[in-house]
Amino acid sequence: MPGSSPIQAVQPDPKPNNRRRRLLFFLAPPLLAVAVALLLGASTNPLPRHFLRRILGSKPSVLRPEAPRPVNGTSRDAGRPPCVLWMAPFASGGGYCSEAWSYVAALDAHAAAGAGNNFTLSIAHHGDLESPEFWIGLPEPSKDLAYRLAAARCELSRAVVICHSEPGAWYPPMYEALPCPPTGYRDPAFVIGRTMFETDHVSPEHVRRCNQMDAVWVPTDFHVSTFVKSGVDRAKVVKVVQAVDVEFFDPAKHVALPLPIGVPVMVPEGSTLEHGDSKGRNFVFLSVFKWEQRKGWDVLLRAFLQEFSGADDVVLYLLISAYHSDTNFIGQIHRFVKETGIKEPVDGWAEIRVINEHVPQSALPSLYKAADAFVLPTRGEGWGRPVVEAMAMALPVIVTNWSGPTEYLTEENGYPLDMDRLTDVTDGPFKGHLCAEPSADHLRALMRHVVVDREEARSKGKKAREDMMERFSPEIVARIVADKIQQALVNTGLTED
Q1: Which of 33, 299, 480, 481 has the smallest number of CB atoms closer than 10 Å to its CB?
Q2: H/E element holding 62?
Q3: Residue 497 and residue 491: Cα distance in Å, rounded?
Q4: Which residues of 126-177 form beta strands (DSSP E)?
Q5: In angstroms, how far is CA 139 from the centroid of its own chain?
Q6: For residues 400 and 375, what is the distance between their CA atoms, to the nearest angstrom?
Q7: Which 3 state secondary structure label does DSSP give 475?
Q8: Peptide bond into 172 cis (omega under 30)
């Protein structure tokens, strides 16, 4: 589930530390001043606002309130088109980051194609901490886009601000982060919260925060229902689906990553697998997830280890990232198998490999291309970014048929996984919420089925890519987003219909 901390007022730190002093040096040139904001925005010790005022002088900034506009219309921004300030964890990695990139890239391409956007686009980092590994692994065109959009001028009084994150990061933030909107809700012309939730309802504090927004964009019908049921104003809740980059995630453009890679799990001492030696398996399952219970890794391991053995020519690759956990994933897997009493088959364990190195964004399509099927027995998804990436790569997917994936997963384009029941979240800030408990028995059957009937699996993978292209391509979603922004501009009087 999204992280959360007790509500607290964030007090400015009157003395910036040495790291911030070094960053101040680079804020002098106007271009770099805004570009560096991408990385400063997620700092756990953000720059005090009075330092920003001192650095930026009288220049209007998205990081502080602008000076009042002259009544005679002589503002230097008079006559400029309104702008959209998109604030999101652009340098963090993860779901919100990937989604935000898909939107801004689609909108930028939409404008470049002469589609007639009547607003400018600017971005700023907001929400999660930045990840240097993620940023380094971005394709160069994405970095160039980030620098350009981060440098774009945006006057708050003529801005639609989009706060693309979990509501705890919105103004005032529940933890130390650059707030969105930067100066509160009075300065921007219109404020949109883009968010989602993975359980059956939204917490009261998040409902309150959603109702402060002028509009709340959610990705699926599932979220429209759960947000409204929880108390978010129905008039504010709008479904805006997510885009997947079907040009980047295109199997025809990539070569499969050579296998094997990663570290083998559940291998006997002295086995050749222990030293990384492995023949290429005839069928490759892939799962991509954060190491948290919500992702259903326990269900996946139980189903795979009970359904397959060393006699089956299959392998399960796990691309895992830490989430409030240590990175000893192999040790945790061993502990799980021991504590749950899963018995080793007569023919030995089926092969599991943990990919223990960072896979840059630019290499992800090659990893998907190396797989035969994607599997994720999740207990709840806001959208399911790796799922739609796998579908765009024409992979058959086995995914729990609840929450976010219900927006795009069908019997024709994948293998919807049954859930046994809705179950309580037992700990953390969302204790008492309900989420799905995926069926381990049905998962075993589906995984065996795709191994046996590969022609059907390939056919569903082909349909999956077709659906991604027809319903969720950047061009299609850009039109949807541009139309919603246009409605906001009309509602605020910043432009005519």
Answers
A1: 480
A2: none
A3: 9
A4: 159-164
A5: 17
A6: 9
A7: helix
A8: yes
The pLDDT score that the predictor gives to residue 253 is 98
The residue ranges of the chain whose pLDDT is under 50 are 1-74, 274-277
Q: Which run of H or E residues covers position 480?
A: helix 474-492
Alpha carbon distances (Å) from 263 to 161, 319, 329? 44, 11, 10
pLDDT of residue 110: 87
Question: Which residue from 374, 421, 386, 388 is spatially nearest to 402, judged by alpha carbons?
Answer: 421
Angle CA 170–174–175, to nearest 5: 105
Specify the pairing of strand 415-417 against strand 397-400.
parallel
- Each residue of 36-49: pLDDT tens digit? 444 333 333 333 33
pLDDT digits 0-9 by tens, 156-215? 999 999 999 999 999 999 988 889 999 999 999 999 999 999 999 999 999 999 999 999
Q: Are 319 and 363 in contact (CB under 8 A)?
A: no
Q: Give the integer Cα–Cα distance in Å for 223 and 404.
A: 8
> Which bin fits 77, alpha (ψ -120 to 50), beta or left (φ > 0)?
alpha
**Sole residue written with tokens 């040139």:** 29
Query: What are phi and psi for residue 307, nearest 5 degrees?
Result: -85, -35
Which token pair is 425? Answer: 């979240």
Residue 139 backbone phi and psi in degrees, to 5: -60, 145
Three-state SS annotation for 65-124: CCCCCCCCCCCCCCCCCCEEEEEECCCCCCHHHHHHHHHHHHHHHHHHCCCCCCCEEEEE
Tokens matching residue 83: 């702008």
> Using CA atoms, how far apart are residues 217 and 215, in angstroms rounded to an integer?
7
Angle at the Cα of 418 from the Cα atoms of 412 and 423, rounded to 5 degrees: 145
Is the pTM value of this prediction over 0.85? no
Q: What is the DSSP string of 176-207?
A: SS--BSBTBSSSSSEEEEE---SSSS--HHHH
Return the CA Rg of the chain.
24
CB burial of 413-442 (b: ≥16 within 10 Å; e: otherwise) equals bbbbbebeeeeebeeebbeebbbbbbbbeb
Angstrom distance (rounded) from CA 403 to CA 392: 20
What's the longest Cα–Cα distance across the chain? 85
Query: Measured between alpha carbons, how far is 401 from 409 in angstroms, rounded to an integer?
Result: 7
